[in-house]
From TrEMBL:
This is ABC transporter. Keywords: ATP-binding, Nucleotide-binding, Transport. It comes from the Bacteria. One of its GO terms (biological process) is transmembrane transport. SUPFAM superfamilies: P-loop containing nucleoside triphosphate hydrolases. Residues 8-256 form the ABC transporter domain. Belongs to the ABC transporter superfamily.
């Protein structure tokens, strides 16, 4: 892909779920099948596919939230697959996620500021007063107010919740962030604001990111390289401009056609 060093390397990743059919017989469902890709340090890699393609399951395995059936995930050369929860904890501050609905990840009974600050307490990186100062600075950077620190998640709009989710993901100064459909639940105008914020933050903090989405227009705007998933298989991977101008598979061509629809592409313009 590039002369740059890969921060994340995914090799032959596979996930098989046990299922039971209508007749009661046990079977297997292959959600992810031998997926491999690298994410270069400092870039945003897009993982794109329709619903049921396996993209979210792949993202969860990269994060260590789902154990793969087989395969490898390395972070900065260190193998993550097979680590105990205790060993994986050492990497948590370096690997974070922004959810599709960040509001659902907040406890409705605690102030958003205290929850954003919690990882600093967990990893014992600074004093309580220093943690509050750091949270306030980060809230300001993502477009929120100091008074928002003591408010609760239900008091915020969808766009504000995503900004808070971004702040929560960045509070530990991670190297790698997974963006799981980060704008799918937002109005088009708000989507554009969040995407621009993410691009600015990536540049400022030299972040490496994995964007999981069904919308190739977002990948075109955010990513240098991308992979296309279909029924658990990575059917195409390469520079985004090549995927757009010379798609090699029917599923990629279908995603490209969707980019040409203004209502789908508008948020990424």
């Amino acid at each position: 892909m590039s002369h740059r060093e890969a921060l994340i390397s995914v090799t032959d990743l596979r996930k098989v779920f046990a299922v039971r059919g209508e007749d009661g017989k046990r079977g297997e469902f292959v959600a992810v099948d031998s997926v491999s890709f690298d994410i270069q340090r400092g870039e945003t890699f897009g993982l794109i596919g329709e619903s049921g393609s396996g993209k979210t399951t792949t993202g969860r395995m990269v994060l260590g939230l789902e154990k793969p059936t087989s395969g490898s995930v390395t972070f900065d050369g260190n193998e993550l697959v097979g680590l105990s929860d205790l060993d994986m904890r050492r990497y948590r501050r370096h690997i974070q996620i922004v959810f599709q609905d960040s509001g659902s990840a907040f406890n409705p009974r605690r102030s958003v500021g205290s929850q954003i600050a919690y990882p600093l307490k967990l990893f014992r990186t600074c004093s309580p007063s220093e943690a509050r100062t750091k949270v306030l600075e980060l809230l300001d950077r993502v477009g929120m107010l100091p008074s928002h620190y003591d408010r609760y998640i239900h008091e915020f709009s969808g766009g504000q919740r995503q900004r808070l989710g971004i702040a929560r993901a960045l509070i530990t100064d991670p190297d790698f962030v997974v963006l799981d459909e980060p704008t799918a639940a937002l109005d088009v105008s708000v989507q554009a604001q969040i995407l621009n914020l993410l691009k600015d933050l990536q540049r400022e903090r030299k972040l490496t990111m994995l964007l999981i989405t069904h919308n190739l227009a977002l990948v075109e705007y955010m990513c240098e390289h991308a992979g296309v998933l279909d029924h658990g298989k990575l059917v195409e991977v390469g520079p985004v401009d090549r995927l757009l101008t010379a798609p090699a598979t029917d599923i990629t061509r279908k995603l490209v056609d969707a980019v040409l629809e203004p209502e789908l592409a508008g948020a990424a313009r």
